[in-house]
Amino acid sequence: MAGVVALLIASGAVLFASIVATARVRPRGGLASLLAIGLIAWASVDLIVGVAGLALRNLSPATLLTLSFAYLAVVLLWARRRRVSKPLRERLQASGAAIREAVTWPPAAVATVLVAASLVWRVVLAVRLPVVDIAGWQYHLVTVDVWLQSNQIERVSQNTWTDGWPATGELLTTWLAAFTHTHALSGFTGLLPIPLGMVAVAGLARGFGADRRPALLAGLLFGMIPALVALAGTSYVDPATTAAVIATWWLGLRLFGERDRATALLFGTAAGLAAGTKDTSLFLVLPILGWVLVAAAWEVIVGDHLGAPWRRLRSPAAQRLGLSLLSFVVFGGLWYLKDLLIHGNPIYPIGFGPFPGLPRDVFFENLPPRLAGLTWTEQVVRSWTADWHLTHYLYNVRPGGFGRAWLAIVPLALAGSALLWRSRRWAALWLIVVPAAVGFAVLPSAWYARYTLFLPGLALPLAAVALGSLRARPASLAGFLLVGLAAISLAAANLLPNISIPLHSRGVARLTGYVAFVLTAPDSQRTNVDLAKDCRTFDALPTGETVAITRSYSVPHAAVGQELERILAQPLDDPTSDAELLGSMRARAAQWLVTNRDDGTNGIALADPAHYVPYGRVCNKGLLWRFVPG
Q: Whole-prediction pTM value?
């Protein structure tokens, strides 16, 4: 409990500092203020964890708490020269008034109630259920495990994924886990970005020229996408990536009209957070980022500047260029520099051209059997229509995931695109719509909703433009239709489990049994589900002992445990002899060895029973051995 209280206090300090900083930079508009608060808070957490883990080499709760209040003090000192209480109050009042006005529209009012109830329920689930997503146990949580065990941010070479993927999302998970030294709250990694994404979608709709009411509805409908909702409570970074991508698009559009330093800083921060959470976001943010940077550089070169040429470096355009580029590098680009220096490939582990890595197809080997043998178009169509047959959603739902409203959103989005063309909004079309469409078309797993959450993030703002062009009554009817269809899928995503939970009843009894399980079941039952149940064998290992694994074992987090009970040693390369394996185990001071059933290491261990005592099978095709140093 003390750790949870410390987390809440530190998070409160960061949030208050973010509100003050937003009032200091004074973004124009209520939605822009809300987005700025969210982006600054997220970036601030990353900076605090980064300073603690890289500069101070100390990720203890005391260090993070101290840095949080030090950060708050710095922000208050920075803001004291300008009176921020009045602009802060004005922005909060403006945001509230805008939202209240939009919510008076009946479709938006209904959607608001549904989304609010959904978010409250997802908070309950994130608190009460364990984090058992497969990618988390493979690399997201593993990165956090190693950082917290070593008490610093360091290279995590447990497998190709931990060693290569950008880890800005893991910085947020580290914040959630460091205070309690458990992963009890790590599921908020997938939940916290959802409200930010909703604000970004509504803002992008406004940037496209949509009216306030349909723009707000677009944001609310984004929060009702079942594939997104089902990810809340996991360590997946897709919600965070999507929110940052959409924020980048909107802020980039604003820079065409508002050439101020604050917007440039927020724009670069959003682009950096997008790139830092997932490298596949690069094709979505680089077009508008590149255009903004080139336009600012061109203004620096050819603009009218009085005095010496060096004064160009102090011009407003140069400041915008520097702030955008610096924030992008700090919050995202550094991970690619790390991969370039270590692996010789900035987007490792994806190999391309002369750069080393794995073939691109390796990253998309997740085709469900029902889509096998179909063409790209057939796979997409089958996935987009699958929601009409789904009665519940797994956290990594496939196919399907966009919800029953999606087939109604698509034609509205196409109409919205046509309206953008007619109104000559070329920046929106060529820097956002076209790159997103091209990226979607070349994506091998375009049928997978989790990989393509940016698509409804773009389609909903376009649909809002189309809704705004209708008269009041048809627009309301269309809004109710979208909300009604989305509500069916939202209920399916919330009222039945997104993970494997043993519920033996059917119908209404199954629903009530699920709610009762979440709210009343003891910890021993709630934490013994899905992957945690499959990997329960590891719980027999004594707390504090060191476990070495081979690189081919797929879920290293299982060896650590949800409360970081055991220490994960450096991974074992494929040993070729008993002497090599024995030396590696002794060098790591490991008491346990985990191998994959297909490892050649098993033959070495079997041939040396004096040092390796078989302990049995463990989850995900693993074998556990007790190591006797001898």
A: 0.94
